[in-house]
Structure formats: C-alpha cells, structure tokens
Amino acid sequence: MKNTLYRNSLVAAFSICFSFAQAQQPAIIEDFKPSELNQPQQEYPMVNSQGYARFKIIAPAADSVRVSLGLGGRGGTKLAKAEDGSWMGTTEGPMDEGFHYYNVRIDGGKFNDPGTLNYYGSVRWESGIEIPAKDQGFYALKNVPHGNVQQILFPSPSTNTSRRAFVYTPPGYEKGKDKYPVLYLQHGWGEDETAWMNQGHANLIMDNLIADGKIKPFIIVCTYGMTNDIKPGQGGGLRSFKIEPFQTVLVDELIPYVDANFRTIAKKEQRAMAGLSMGGFETKTISMNKTDVFDYYGLLSGGVYAPADFKDKPQPKLIFISCGSKERPDGVKKAGEELKAAGFNAVSYVSEGTAHEFQTWRRSLYQMAPLLFK
Fold it and tell me: In the record, which residues are listed under signal peptide (predicted)?
C-alpha cells in the first residue's frame, strides 16, 4: 500500500512539474522573417522576434538532415521531412543575439546552407545567421560618413610570400593630411583577416562612434594570424602554436609597411593591439615580448593580464579585458580589480547574455575604442 501511494505521489508530482514546465515554456511567435544574411531572394533561414531560428533545406533523397551543433544548445536542430521533399525545423530555444556560424549535416556529410552567405570560421567557410540584437544600433549601417576598408598585400620575407591585410581608414582620410593612431586587431582561432570587418562590423562600429563624436578617429589593421598553419585536432592544436613566426610578420613586416604606406603616427604611444580569443593570446604574448611596440592592450575573451606579468616591464597606457557573461566573467572582473589596485589603467567589461561569440566582441570593441589613444 505504501509503495502504491509513493508511486502515485511520484506520478502526480511529475505531472505537476511537467505541466508547470510546459506552462513556463513560451509559445513560439510566428513572426519569422528571412535572416538579414540570406542570399538574394532566399526566404530561409528565418528568425523571429524571440530569437528562434527556422531552417528549410531541399534534400528530397536524404534520410536525415540536422543543423550543426550549437544552435539551440542541445546538439543542434533536427529537421523533419515535408511532403514536398524539403526538410524543416526550428531551434529548440532562442539563440543568443548576434552572429552565429552553422552548417548542415545531410546523411552525415557536412554542407553549407545554400540559402545564406558564407563566413570564414572553424577553418572553413561556414554559413552565417544573424539574430537581431536589441542594441544593434551601434553596428548598424547608418546614413553617416563612412570610412574605407581596403585590402593590402605586404611583402613578408620571413614567410617567402606576400601576405594580406585589411585596413580601415576613417572618413575623410583620403582627402586629408592628418596622421592617425593604429589599432592592430586580431581574429580568433579558425578565422582569418576578413572576420572583424565581415562578422564583427568593426568598420561600421567605428563609423558610428566617429559620427557621434565618441572617439578620436584611428586606423584599424587586420591580418591573418595563423602563420604556422596548425590545424585544430592535429599536433596539439593551440598548444602547438608558436608565436614567433607571427610576431615577426606583425612587428617586423606589417607594421613598417603600414607606417610607410599610410599616414600613421609611428610611435608606441599611438599604437594598440587587441584580439578576440586566440587573437587575445597573440596580443598578450606579443605585448609582453615587444613592450616597445604597443601602449594599449585589449584581450577580448582572450585571457587576462596580472600585475606580475609586468615585473621589470613598463606599464601600458591601457589594459582592456572582456568576455561574455556566459563565459568566465568573474575571472575578468577580478583581474581588472587586481590591476587597478596595482596602479594600472585597467578596464574590464562583461557583455550581458552572450558567450564566446561575435556579439560579445562587437560590444567589446564598442566599449574599448573610446578608451584608446587618450
């Protein structure tokens, strides 16, 4: 009798909890619109006002279709086959605001979604989707004066080739004579020199800050940081990455080329380096190795500095460290407090509601830029 009562109580409790969970799960609002990153005339993928994403893949002969790991946070999104042979599905829950990479698994093979544009990430060109953010205005395309983003090819004797970089010059640069400070801004693991302008909208962030009078205009330079071609999952991954080849490219080849071909203020006091994720690792290592090159440091989800790192080294003019609230914000906050207590001009920033993703880094650049070159 006691066992029966206990079992019935468990069933009742489970039913109540299940009903409560169902009641707490908000209904999906059917206000889906094409993602702003879709190919011309393509309806899918779509996003709604709650941050859900919906996908449609035409694969009539497929046995299974799934959108890549990470969307929805529970192993990806499994699509269901419709009568017309297409496959459709909606993420299990809302996604973080901002940009996300994804791919499509069809019968185990990895493909890109033909409905959307591709972006270089995960050491390959991946599909991209944008979940509109409440604060997207700071990187929106607005009717303000725009700077110029140009590709340059600079000689690199150390790698026996010419290497590529992208250079943002602020509005009015071409018609003026002023000289400008420079931020060398690095991408993350598996990305390349296109990431900050394409996925990160660094140029639009700068345009809008300059138009609002919030920053002193400066140049941004982005180049490829994977000089020794270590591939994820091979040879120890990031632990096998050696900084020396890239340090040579950046410090001995790229910076002299930029200073010779652009109107820069070629002084340590007017030069900054920052990077996201692996680019933060590069920034910290090079800034410690070459204390005479940069005076402003930024680690965006890329580790932290400690006062002990600067033993017998000069203090920089600024240390900026950041991450998303879904990463390890306590470590970033603590590091910022310890640096300030030790007399450093240090600023820590946490992007609310985001993880190791571009919305975190867009917001970080927006917060960091006004602090540079003071």
Answer: 1-23
CA distances, 124 to each of 45, 69, 117, 187, 305 (Å): 20, 15, 13, 14, 31
219-242 burial, b if ≥16 CB within 10 A, otherwise e? bbbbbbbbbeebeeeeeeeeeebe
pLDDT string in tens for the chain (374-residue length)? 434 433 443 333 333 333 333 445 579 999 999 999 999 999 999 999 999 999 999 999 999 999 986 544 445 899 999 999 999 999 999 999 999 999 999 999 999 999 999 999 988 999 999 999 999 999 999 999 999 999 999 999 999 999 999 999 999 999 999 999 999 999 999 999 999 999 999 999 999 999 999 999 999 999 999 876 555 455 445 667 889 999 999 999 999 999 999 999 999 999 999 999 999 999 999 999 999 999 999 999 999 999 999 999 999 999 999 999 999 999 999 999 999 999 999 999 999 999 999 999 999 999 999 999 99
For residue 247, give every residue at least 6 positions away whose Cβ sits within 8 Å of its Cβ, in sequence order, or none. 285, 286, 289, 290
For residue 196, the surrounding DSSP H or E stretch is helix 195-198
Last residue of some domain: 66, 98, 132?
132
* Nearest-angstrom CA–CA distance, 264 and 272: 12
Q: Which residues, in sequence order, are bridge partners of residue 298?
A: 274, 320
- Residues linked to residue 77 through DSSP beta bridges, in sequence order: 67
Q: How far apart are CA 253 and CA 245, in angstroms?
A: 11
Nearest to 238 by CA among 280, 179, 176: 280
Contact 283, 368 (CB under 8 A): no
What one-letter code names the amino acid at 164? R
pTM score, whole prediction = 0.90
Pairing of strands 182-186, 219-223: parallel
Residue 127 parent element (H or E): strand 124-131
Q: Do 350 and 243 lie in a common domain?
A: yes
Q: For residue 331, is it within any domain?
A: yes
Instruction: Collect all residues with Cβ–Cβ distance below 8 Å to 120 and sequence separation of at least 6.
Output: 126, 191, 192, 194, 195
Count structural domains, the chain: 2
Helix (H) or strand (E) run with residue 210 in it: helix 202-211
Residue 299: give the domain boundaries. 137-371
